[in-house]
Amino acid sequence: MTSPFPSKEQVFDFLDDYAYQRKEEIDRRQLGKDQGLIKSYLLETMPGNPERGTGMDLPVVLRGTGWQIVPIEDTALYQVYDGEGELGFLEPLSSRHLALHSISETRRADKAVRNTVLATSQLDFAWLSSSYFQVLWQHLILPQMPKRFIKLRFEHEARFEADSWDGRREKSLEEPMERRASSLTITERSHKVAQFLPDLQRVHPPFRVIKMLRIPAPEVRGGYDLWSWGKMTYRAPSFRDGRAQMLSIARLYERTTQVIEQLLWFQVERIKGKEGSEGMTLRGAPVTFTFTPPLSITAFRNFVTTTFERGQGPLRLWGNPIWRGDKKVHIYGMDLHLWRRIYLEITPRQMRVILPRGTCGNTVHRLVVNVLRYLTPTAQVFIGEAEYERLIERVLLGEDI
Fold first, then answer.
1. Which helix (H) or strand (E) holds 15?
2. I want to staple 31 with a disulfide (CB 3.0 to 4.6 A). Which of 25, 193, 249, 398 is the partner?
3. Angle between helices 388-397 and 239-264 (to 10 degrees)
4. Are 384 and 285 spatial neighbours (Cβ–Cβ below 8 Å)?
5. Which of 173, 171, 177 is nearest to 229 (CA)?
6. How confident is the model at residue 53, as a pLDDT?
7. Confidence band (pLDDT; 50, 70, 90) for 58?
8. In degrees rounded to 5, what are phi and psi of residue 378?
9. How would residue 276 be classed by pLDDT, with cut points 50, 70 and 90?
10. Following DSSP, what letter does each residue of 16-69 receive, concatenated?
11. Handedness of CA 137, 141, 147, 150 (dihedral sign)
12. Burial of 3 (0-12, 13-18, 19+ CB in 10 A)
């Protein structure tokens, strides 16, 4: 099979034209019900090692996905087909990140990507927490575009507070099943959001959980909706501008993940002492979630049994809980992304997570996003002694960690 596109530039020209046409339809309120906007899905996989000349091994990454890829000339761009036909264009962005650009209708594309990620240990979503959205808005959007309209969507679902949870899968990451929840969507000028958002979040903590941020497009109306599971929806007339935004976000995300791995990975290292003596030292630090106020006993037990004993829920972890009384549990677990070990100690007041060397730092982002959204919106997160949000901010600003 050969691609109908002879070059990467022609693919991008096609997507630019497509974005322009869809934006005109949006402005005229004539966008067809089944007409797909451009969507880019940022995916994370096993990192290669560029220093050793081992980049991403795409056939290994996609093994078991059912995707068929067709290279476009000699470029790092592929046309993707699945069991229902053409899905989009797959673009490796780095040694550990991929972007799938699709014009398929939202329900079709979201379902295909979600099912593919959950079916293989090699792939995970790029999980963008509220901390990422806060940093992007405060340091990039607010100073440069204070009078532009932004859109924020907040959502918290108290999944584990009920007496039982059946673990049924959601039909869509953007359209969850009906449950008791706090949700709010705000469209307002950036500088006005800065005036009321801190008070809103202080009065009602669920509004600390940002699910979507619309990044304004440069110099034109519209923007790019960035979702917490790494999806970007193009509501502006330029594909290339949106792709540039995604590349910047992917670079920040990758640098943050690498810093997290450097700080957290537990490993034993040999050290040399005085007069040639040798010794051993333990390096690494835990991820700490502090729950203030403490979790209810019901939420605590439902969270542990659903996530680890049943292997269900959004955290994508599995393990063997060892109960140390009614309010403390140790877990020797597996991260189902890459099937690496992970160790946890959980109480109603705190969760401590230990990542052995080789466990993907992307796991931390996944935990932060889903703990805040489904367990408690008031959790404070520390990477070793560094506050999680402050760490992201320092990486963005190029500060020493």
1. helix 8-27
2. 25
3. 120
4. yes
5. 173
6. 44
7. confident
8. -105, 5
9. low
10. HHHHHHHHHHHHTT---TTPPPPEEEEEEE---BGGGTB---HHHHTTTS--EE
11. negative
12. middle
pTM equals: 0.90
**What does each C-alpha distance from 251 to 5, 94, 247, 283, 389 come to in angstroms?**
28, 9, 6, 26, 17
Residue in the block written with tokens 């940093």: 135
Q: How far apart (Å, rounded) are the C-alpha atoms in residues 369 and 388? A: 12
Residue that the structure tokens 């995707």 belong to:
67
Residues 352 and 375: their CA atoms lie apart, in Å, by 15
Phi and psi dihedrals of 233, rounded to 5? -105, 130
Give the contacts of 179 (CB within 8 A, at least 6 positions apart).
157, 158, 159
| CB of 235 closer than 8 Å to CB of 214 | yes
Number of H helices, E strands in the chain: 10, 20
> What is the mean predicted confidence (pLDDT) over 229-239?
97
Strand partners, 131: none
- Residue found by looking up tokens 């901390």 in the block: 131
Rounded CA-CA distance 382/374 in Å is 19
Tokens of 53: 């000349």
Q: Which residues contact 163 (CB under 8 A, 6 or more apart)?
A: 298
pLDDT > 70: percent of the chain = 88
- Compute the distance between CA of residue 353 and CA of residue 288 in angstroms, rounded to an integer: 6
Angle formed by the axes of helices 239-264 and 362-374, nearest 10°: 100
* Element holding 215 (H helix, E strand): strand 210-216
